[in-house]
Amino acid sequence: MISIGNDIVSLDHPNRGRALDERFYSKFLSRTELGLFPPGNNSSLSLDAFIWLSWSVKEAAFKYLKRIIPDLIFSPVRFILEDFLDLGNYGISGSKPDYGLFRDAPGTLFGGRVGFDSHTLHFKSAVFKGWVHSVVLGDENFKRVVERVRRIDNPSYDDQAKAVRIFSLESLGRIFPNSDLQIEKHPYGYPRVRQKDGKILPVPVSFSHDGSFVAYCFRVG
To answer: Against a cut of 0.85, is the pTM above it?
Structure first.
């Protein structure tokens, strides 16, 4: 089954400072995983950003596997970062995502692998001022992934959920015009796209929101 998962973490929340509290991060990061930091001698990534990035990768990996293992329960300690690479400054590395209004802002891309039992998944993460966003796939072909991060005015849950669906349908509509697409929730909780003829569009999508940021991704082709 083709799947995808994503997660965004807003770094603007006052309680984000707890990332450096060992009592917090030890609940989902092992000493071996912490040993992956920093990802290179010249990396500008801070430890707290690495911790939240790790959390977002594990959340995204869970969303990826939820389509494959419907009864899966999120246990972040069972998702293990296997390697972690600094892919360079946003706008310099080869194939890069389009982060919309953030495309001209300074940011850094990271990548690596995350394991869960017998599954080995691949992730790509972006760290910008104010947020961290991660996408997880079962392979390394991120060139077919469309991902976007948007800022919204009202960070209420209802507005977050509504905005991310509207934005994703706008992007999907540009790729699949005249399809009258609708977003619905699968009985197991993940989003899927239905066409006007009633058929499910074979394009996996994933949503995430935190604070004033919403993010979505989908894989085409």
So the answer is: yes
